[in-house]
Amino acid sequence: METATLLADKRIKAIISKLGNDKRVLGKNPYFLLSKPKQNPKTDLDAEDLLDLFRAGILNESETMFWLGVVAIQNEEKAKRHESLSTIDELTQIYNRRVFIETLSRELERLRRKAIEVARQINSAPSLAMFLIDIDHFKKVNDTYGHLVGDQVLQRLAEIIKKNIRTSDTVFRYGGEEFAVLLPDTDEETALEIAERLRRKTENFRFPLPEKGIAGRIKKQFRPKRVTISIGVTVLEGKQILKKPVTDTLIPYLIRQADKALYNAKNNGRNRVEKGGGK
Q1: For the chain, which residues score pLDDT lower than 50?
Q2: Which contacts of 4-7 are long-range, i.e. CB under 8 A and separated by 24 or more positions?
Q3: Which residues partner with 164 through β-bridges?
Q4: What is the 8-class DSSP label of residue 29?
């Protein structure tokens, strides 16, 4: 019994040590170790720790229930942060490639359902447009100014894209210096207009890049300089998937079409918009 008591006391002291400076003395009880309830109370304890303190008589029932609630909220916040890290590109703060593939699959399924519904009423169907965007000569930016400046260019471009697409459209960090945009219910003419607007807005924006000094050293002074993009556009008409389900082969096919269009934009001089297959 004495050994069990010592072990229990050791367990309580171990719990107390988790809190460090967060403990305080209440009356003659040296084990009251949770700070007063604040606007945003926090604790390093878990639910098991709190229940041990309750069983030891250190916390009463209302205190235990309060701090169990705090722990539950903290766990929920941690889960949300973890989910955000798995879906958001840390650098540009836009959705990452994983979410792009998931969203593309979902949009294709939605397009198919809508196409079937609309086709029953009129002799037409909605469509889905997609962009693949690549920064021209981005390797030169990294080699000349360093990766930190390259990261700033990516961040600014992400902002430009977000400001110049519609609320129904979504931009993703596809990888490296490539971005993807999904445009639901968008025909080819509209898609090309939006793509051209993005290209023009980027061309006219002046990115603050540092000047090069003697012997290629980077100066602290920044001078606005031009950065351009190439865009590959593809459009999938709803009637193309009226009679077939969305499969794992359809997504790579659509990406390939946009990629071919992007390749043509690069091959034809860069800083331009090209359309690919999909019709």
Answers
A1: 1-7, 20-39, 213-215, 278-279
A2: none
A3: none
A4: B
DSSP-derived letter for residue 216 is G
Q: State the Cα–Cα distance between residues 198 and 160, nearest whole angstrom.
A: 8
Taken as a whole, the chain contains a residue count of 279
Report the alpha-carbon distance of residue 169 to residue 274 in Å, rounded. 19
Structure tokens at 153: 């260019």
Handedness of CA 28, 11, 52, 9 (dihedral sign): negative
Q: What one-letter code names the amino acid at 205?
A: F
**Residue 2 has which token pair?**
């004495």
Instruction: Yes or no: say if 180 and 195 are a contact pair by the CB < 8 Å rule.
Output: no
Q: How far apart are CA 82 and CA 174, in angstroms?
A: 20
61 an active-site residue?
A: no
Rounded to a whole number of angstroms, the CA Rg of the chain reads 28
Calpha distance 36→153 (Å, rounded): 46
pTM: 0.67
CA–CA distance, 98 with 6 (Å, rounded to integer): 52
Q: Give residue-wise pLDDT tens across range 183-231.
A: 998 999 999 999 999 999 999 999 988 766 434 555 555 678 899 999 9
CB 131 within 8 A of CB 276: no
Q: Which of 2, 90, 177, 178 is catalytic?
A: 177
